[in-house]
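Bug #77: duplicate submission created two jobs. Keeping one. Sequence:
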Amino acid sequence: MEGIRHETVPGDRVSWREKLGLGFGNAAAGCPATFHTLVGPIFNMTLGMNPALISTILFIQRIWDAFSDPVIGQYSDNFRSRWGRRLPLMAGAALPMCGLFLALWWFPRHASEMTLFWYLLVVSLAFFTAQTTYSMSLIGLRIEATDDYHERTRVAMVVMVFGFVFQILSQWLFPLTQLDVFVDPVNGLRWVMGGVAAVYFFMAVIPIGLCRERNYQQVAARQPKIRLRESFRHVWTNPPLKRVVFARLIESFGYNIVGMFAVYMNTYYLFGGDLKRAAWVYGFMGSAFMISAICCSLFVYPALSRRLGKKTTFQIAVGVLMAGCVAKLVVYQPEWPWLQLVVLVANGAAISGISIMGNSMLADIADYEEWRSGCRNEAFLAAILAWCDKAGSSIGSLICGFILVWIGFDAATGRQGEGTLQMMKFFYFLMPFLGAVAAFFVMRDYELSEDRVYEIKDALARRHRSSHEAQS
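Kept job's structure:
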């Protein structure tokens, strides 16, 4: 346990103006989470699309997203303009990202299953390309906002809270599409998502006016452009980064291999296929997930991080995820549907801690990379973390739909068989539990303690002063 040994000096603090800008930007960049919340209820439960086809789409789009992250992150690190390297790319990507997000839900009415498949696949690939351009530039901007160990956790906390607050809305979008005021659910979907896309665009442009690029003039603009191959070589020889990304990879795979099961367990295990009743309950459950994440992000993990250090706090969050997995075996009872709240609260608490600590550690790793290689490539490092997270997510999502088919799930039948439900419950517990256990042990030897990060910070400050004096 590290304890409190260093205090943040005023010059290392990030203003609330910039924190708010980064928070709004992160909320806008979270639009893929809205898509993933709705894809099962809309395309499978409402339109009857085969879950294996949906899993195939999710797999392809996430693989596309994962491989485009390093390329676009590298491009953002090497981009040069009089306005900087992050903000111009964000400005150019904001409108395409939000417009393509709306187009995802503007599919042809009465289309065949394969037409829906190809429409959703093509539009989603274009959407994720625009979203990656925006989000990778935003993450690079966030990482360079401060070089203080504790302030990085506070920035990550604000950013995550904004994301979780606006994702509460996502939990209610599907119930809203079912309202009788609309002609049919498709009509409701288009009206609701039109409003959501407008809100996302408004939030996406806010950081362009509120934020600044801290390291552009003093470091990034002076360093030579880094080749993609060289960046990958730096990653391979960066032990702290490899531990964080592998922990996220295995945790993400375990969590997402049954990621769609939460809505299916609620709808079919607890409500016997009653879609409208289950939709409103799941709205409350999803909100409980986000509220738990917000509360832990604000009051629990920043305090734990200051007291125990980032590595131990990360492991505590993973332990909470394990506890939530075990609870699934007990709390899912058709006669007590609200008991599932325990699982959603535990998951929200766990995911918030894993995300905050991962993002905060990534900023420390960016300094470590500059100290050892002389180059700052924040967006590329973030892209590698996102790549492993999305690779685990994409492979897990692909397998998820096929597991549903294998255990005998069929949305057309409504109520599912007892064997299907029990197998669904078993896999919903087992896979995230195993992924969490593996992530816990991977992080045991993470080496960037608080003292070590401050040593690197001082060494970089001396290096920057020497470089500036040499050029003057």
